[in-house]
Amino acid sequence: MSPEIQVSPEPLVVARGLSKAYVTPSGTLEALHDVDASFPPGAITAVVGSSGSGKSTLLRAIAGLDRPSGGSLSVAGTELAGASPEALRAHRQSAVTYVSQKAADNYIPHLTVAEHAESAPGLISLLETFGLEHRLGSKPIELSGGEQARGAFALALTRGTPLIVADEPSAELDRDSAQRLLDAIRRQADAGTAFVVATHDPDVIAAADHVLWLERGRVVEGAPGAVERRGAAVTSADAEVVAFARHVSKGFQVGSERIVALHDASLELRRGEVGVLLGQSGSGKSTLLSIFAGLQPPDSGEVGPSGALPWSELAFMPQRFGLLPELSVRENVALPARLIGAGAERADEVERLLAALGLDELADRPPQETSIGQQQRAGLARALVLGPPLLLADEPTSHQDATWRDAVWRLLLDAAARGTSCLVATHEEEATRHASRIWRVAEGIVTETDS
Question: What residues are paired with 210 via a beta bridge?
């Protein structure tokens, strides 16, 4: 942790008329337009807006990773708009710490967590605060998405820079883990560090000292309106069982330690149900989904239906989306239909899903020219395009603001009404209001609770 810093009354970051446009093969994309904003030291500023609003672009500009196209951007007295490569490198080394939205990108892949900690005084203690003391011998790829996010933020907090910019740091975290992160941010902000956090998490917004709202790359005043609330899905107890697990256990060897990911897990999911696996990161949710998907076998127990479903009847939406960069968003969504020779037959369904998830105007762009939230929604559209009997979705709303989170759930409920059984792994407690079946997962133990 950094020592206490004397806080200046002057803003640490000042943007005036800031613009950023990207020239891509599909045209020019204006990500920021004439943004005026300032960020004080020793304070938490939340940058809020729907996916694609320019939040990540603003953070990357402040971090010296993307050069502005127009206007001025001063950080800690350095003008970044016309800065030399050497000045930008010095800025990234000493003035700012950037925490990527893709948690794995914050690590050196071949180093263990403990090896990352060797060059970061105080990191071991912070990792213990974040509940990662048992993962010190693990490499980043061996961590769950939530564990990667917590470890990455612990690394950021120990660098001692006057400014930390973090892109959706709580997206992969359950509420308890997110609160620990917020407590750590508040302690360091009180010691003088400035935080600029892109987020759609209402708890992060509530904890912030200042809020900057963006929409389509422009600063807007006030907050968006309330989102529509939907009731939970309902299904018949006599409906066909589409998937089941009976006494499933699974463990992994990490160095000399045996990690139990699942212990004697049992559940049944029926036709048209929306089932929710609710638990903290590292609880075993993703492991159970991957076993259902046939990506890894259980150590013991049985999953069904016996014999793997054909891929066209079992859709799996992973946390990392798996979109193909050489295809457009529309082509990614349509790909499953093309692979079975049903491209023309499912063309209207492709367009319906794109429109329902706000992707129709971006459909001709490659995924890398869209936001992480938009990529996540494209992954869901692709998973649903064939109307599969079974959908397995791992944290499908983790990168969505409130409006699009509700849109995702509306689409899942609509899919259930059309006959798709949905099994959703999530850390978001509010998901329970949409579910017809709820299983809480803790330390590999799965327990059904009342919906």
Answer: 45
106, two tokens: 């914050």
CB of 13 closer than 8 Å to CB of 75: yes
- State how far the Cα of 133 lies from the Cα of 257, in Å rounded to an integer: 13
Contact 323, 367 (CB under 8 A): yes
The strand pairing partners of 248, in sequence order, are 265
pTM over 0.70: no
CB 219, CB 213: distance < 8 Å: yes
Q: Identify which of 117-121, 131-135, 241-245, 252-256 has the greatest average pLDDT.
A: 241-245
The pLDDT assigned to 244 comes to 92
Neighbours of 21 (CB within 10 A): 16
- In this prediction, residues 13-33 reach a mean pLDDT of 85
The residue among 60, 448, 48 whose CA lies nearest residue 267 is 448
DSSP notation for 31-53: EEEEEEEEE-TT-EEEEE-STTS
Q: Which two tokens stand for residue 13?
A: 């970051």
Instruction: State how far the Cα of 30 lies from the Cα of 178, in Å rounded to an integer.
Output: 32
Which pair of tokens denotes residue 362?
């971006």
Q: Quote the tokens at residue 197.
A: 């956090």
Measured in whole angstroms, how far is the alpha carbon of residue 27 from the centre of its chain?
Answer: 27
Helix (H, G, I), strand (E, B) or coil at 224: coil
Beta-carbon count within 10 A of 132 CB: 22
User: What is the C-alpha separation between 378 and 62, in angstroms, rounded?
Assistant: 28
Tokens standing for residue 269: 């999911």
Asked whether the beta carbons of 35 and 156 are under 8 A apart, the reply is no
Cα–Cα dist 108/105, whole Å: 8
Distance of CA 131 to the CA centre of its chain: 20
First-to-last CA distance in the chain?
42
Strand-strand pairing, 437-442 and 274-279 = parallel
Structure tokens given for 161: 């820079």
pLDDT digits (tens, 9 = 90+) for 117-140: 777 777 888 888 888 888 888 888
**Which residue in 449, 451, 427, 429 sits closest to 439, CA to CA?**
449
Per-residue CA distances from 220 to 71, 168, 212, 214, 223 (Å): 18, 20, 8, 6, 8
**Alpha-carbon gap, residue 415 to 400, rounded angstroms:** 19
